[in-house]
Design a protein that fits this description.
The chain is mostly helical. It has one domain: Fumarate reductase/succinate dehydrogenase, transmembrane subunit (3 helical TM bundles of succinate and fumarate reductases). Helices cover 72% and strands 0% of the residues. It contains 11 helices and no strands. The radius of gyration is 23 Å and the shape is elongated.
């Protein structure tokens, strides 16, 4: 049966066609959300490289700054990546806000329905709204920091921020918000678009498995930064330089981001 025949039979043939823009905006919201979720996972592995040692974290950070390609660091390369991610983040936030409750009455109605129905997917959506609201502020501040001071992505300096500057509660809350929001978003995308084509029960188990894995990775990484920061508290602001770099440069290595 054709689309036109269905419209005639349900009495909608003479009504104006609905705009396709909401569907297009939904597609764009899904695409930006998918990009941010995968970026979040890559970022977590980068942050988690501290668990393999300070030298490993330093090596990964300098790789993104072009140190091993150009012979010296260009932190502005990191700023370019962060700037692009920030633009995608803003676009995703604007698209997502369309579906947020716009007043207290709507929000109270949604909460009442979620409690009454006890529907897990509806509850997950409510939590996605909570965490998304938090990320408006937390992720924006984090992206701004990385964009303006990319040269401070360093094992010692990053640990100083966590411990000596007392930012570990900020990173803890952001970790919980971003992991819950991202994994719930991927689950909802899978249900919405039908890929992978699997029962919801299985998708939920995969979703909670991914959430648990990345939360454990994030918490372990945060604990490592706190430990390093505590041990480095008497030398706040002092950069980390691997021993092999000092030996290679004859003790004259001063990688201060001269390529900016």
């Amino acid at each position: 049966m054709s689309y036109e025949t269905i419209l005639i039979q349900v009495g909608l043939a003479d009504k104006p066609r609905t705009s396709r823009w909401p569907a297009r905006l939904d597609l764009l919201q899904s695409a930006t959300g998918l990009f941010l979720a995968f970026f979040m996972w890559l970022h977590m592995f980068f942050v988690g490289s501290i668990l393999l040692g300070e030298s490993t974290f330093w090596t990964v950070a300098k790789f993104f700054e072009g140190y091993f390609i150009f012979g010296k660091s260009y932190p502005w390369l990191v700023s370019c990546v962060v700037g692009f991610v920030a633009l995608v983040f803003v676009a995703h936030a604007i698209l997502a806000v369309r579906k947020f409750p716009i007043n207290y009455r709507q929000w109270r109605t949604i909460r009442a329905h979620a409690k009454m129905m006890r529907h897990e997917d509806s509850t997950l959506w409510v939590w996605q709204v909570y965490t998304g609201f938090l990320l408006f502020f937390l992720a924006s501040a984090h992206l701004y920091q990385m964009f303006v001071w990319p040269q401070d992505i360093d094992p010692n300096l990053s640990s100083d921020r966590v411990w000596s500057y007392g930012l570990w509660p900020f990173y803890l809350v952001m970790l919980l918000a971003v992991e819950l929001h991202g994994c719930i978003g991927l689950y909802r995308l899978a249900v919405k678009w039908g890929w992978p084509n699997a029962p919801r029960e299985i998708l939920r188990k995969v979703k909670w498995g991914l959430t648990g894995f990345f939360l454990l990775l994030g918490l372990a990484s945060l604990a490592a930064y706190m430990k390093i920061g505590y041990e480095h508290r008497a030398h706040v602001g002092e950069r980390y330089t691997p021993s092999w770099v000092v030996e290679k440069d004859g003790g004259a290595h001063r990688d201060q981001g001269d390529g900016q």
